[in-house]
Design goal:
The chain contains 1 helix and 8 strands; from the N terminus they run αββββββββ. The protein has 120 residues and is an alpha+beta fold. It has a single domain, classed as Lipocalin (Beta Barrel), CATH 2.40.128.
Length: 120
């Protein structure tokens, strides 16, 4: 009986961990309309697409230079980080998830702020 109880408790714990990972990832999965800005008044719109397969996140960015895969994509708590290499430049992005929006910074050959809202 003790062995069966231990197995049930272990199974319940594993299911709870899987649910937490799924719930955390689902907050960022989808298509996002993003805008990057720097110290000038320029604004660069781009699209962020994030998907989850078995709890593993992947995604792409699409902007005026084309579509590029995300590298080192990670969600830790409410912090989403990734890097992306376009045809000519590399950037690191750090976003904080807040409700249904994200905001943060980018750095690379230039740096600035990023805002993101889910695509309607």
């Amino acid at each position: 009986m003790k062995t069966m109880t231990r197995k049930l408790v272990l199974l319940a714990a594993l299911l709870a961990l899987a649910w937490v990972a799924w719930a955390q990832n689902s907050a960022v999965v989808g298509t996002w309309n993003c805008v990057a800005t720097d110290q000038t008044p320029a604004r660069w719109p781009w699209t962020l697409v994030i998907s989850s397969n078995g709890g593993t996140l992947s995604g792409t960015t699409t902007g005026h230079a084309g579509t590029f895969p995300l590298n080192n994509l990670s969600l830790s708590g409410t912090t989403l980080t990734f890097s992306v290499t376009t045809s000519s430049q590399s950037y690191s992005v750090r976003l904080t998830v807040s409700g249904t929006t994200m905001s943060g910074t980018y750095s690379g050959s230039s740096s600035g702020k990023v805002t993101a809202a889910p695509q309607q």
